[in-house]
């Protein structure tokens, strides 16, 4: 039986890298996107060209019903789910909290936290022993970031949820982990950055490699963990 990956924010650089990594290793793909129409269509075509099924589903993640809607459409195409990756997020603008609109605050939390939690809830019902959930977090959760307090706070909450939900799902054999990137460049180019101890920014494919490892049998005893990928920053 073919394995399946469901990922939100699939047309983003990290999302696309994760999709390619799993597809190249035999997974069929269902991904959501919102605004990157051209990137989503090209990505879906690329995955189909390597012989795997790929469904690109446009979904506004600020919608309170987004999670249930995603699973409903997923089940029209696939009868089981092996891997869930919560990657959708509203990229924060660096601005003081006092200048943010209430709607902006609500939307950031809905996309990056609330619907990630809801998607875990709805997806778990079609996941079996041996399945995995990966939540994409951020190193800003540890230090608050610079004028991105709401974003940092929701990522901190996502980390706490990851640990708690891993304990809850352990009896079902479903592992739950988070990946916490620092500075990841949008391309696969080597971008030097002397503020980072390893001397460069991270690549989307490096996040994808970690995600694939965490979902593999080699990581069968890893659950409830937050995995930093930061170049020692």
Features:
7 helices; alpha/beta
Roughly what is the average pLDDT, rounded to an integer?
A: 98
Uncertain segments of ≥5 residues (pLDDT<50)? none
Assess the beta-strand content as a share of residues: 15-25%
Report the CATH superfamily.
Answer: NAD(P)-binding Rossmann-like Domain
What kind of sheet is the major sheet? Answer: 7 strands, parallel
Number of domains: 1
Largest sheet, spatial ordering of strands = 3-2-1-4-5-6-7
**What is the CA-based Rg, rounded?**
17 Å
What's a quick, concise take on this entry?
By secondary structure, this protein is α/β, with parallel strands linked by helices.
Structure overview:
There is one protein chain. β1, α1 and β2 form a beta-alpha-beta unit. The chain is 40% helix and 18% strand. The chain has a single domain, classed as Rossmann fold, CATH 3.40.50. The mean pLDDT is 98. The protein has 7 helices and 7 strands. The chain has 233 residues and is α/β, with parallel strands linked by helices.
Chain-wise SSE layout:
Layout: E1 4-7, H1 13-24, E2 28-33, H2 37-49, E3 54-58, H3 66-74, E4 81-86, H4 102-124, E5 127-136, H5 140-143, H6 149-169, E6 175-181, H7 204-214, E7 226-229
Parallel strand pairs: 1-2, 1-4, 2-3, 4-5, 5-6, 6-7
């Amino acid at each position: 039986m073919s394995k399946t990956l469901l990922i939100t924010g699939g047309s983003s650089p990290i999302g696309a890298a994760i999709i390619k990594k799993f597809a190249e290793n035999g997974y069929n793909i269902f991904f959501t996107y919102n605004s990157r129409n051209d990137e989503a269509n090209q990505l879906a075509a690329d995955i189909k060209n390597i012989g795997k099924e790929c469904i690109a589903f446009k979904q506004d993640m600020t919608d309170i019903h987004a999670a249930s809607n995603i699973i409903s459409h997923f089940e029209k195409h696939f009868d089981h789910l092996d891997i869930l990756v919560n990657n959708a997020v509203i990229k924060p603008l660096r601005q003081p909290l006092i200048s943010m609109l209430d709607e902006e605050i609500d939307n950031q939390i809905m996309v990056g936290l609330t619907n990630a939690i809801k998607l875990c809830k709805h997806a778990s019902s079609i996941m079996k022993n041996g399945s995995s959930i990966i939540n994409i977090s951020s190193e800003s959760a540890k230090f608050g970031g610079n004028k991105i307090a709401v974003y940092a706070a929701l990522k901190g909450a996502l980390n706490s949820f990851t640990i708690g939900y891993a304990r809850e799902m352990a009896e079902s054999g479903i592992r739950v982990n988070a990946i916490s990137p620092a500075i990841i460049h949008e391309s696969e180019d080597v971008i030097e950055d002397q503020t980072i101890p390893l001397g460069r920014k991270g690549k989307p494919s490096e996040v994808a490699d970690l995600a694939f490892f965490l979902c593999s049998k080699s990581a069968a005893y890893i659950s409830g963990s937050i995995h930093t990928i930061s170049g020692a920053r």
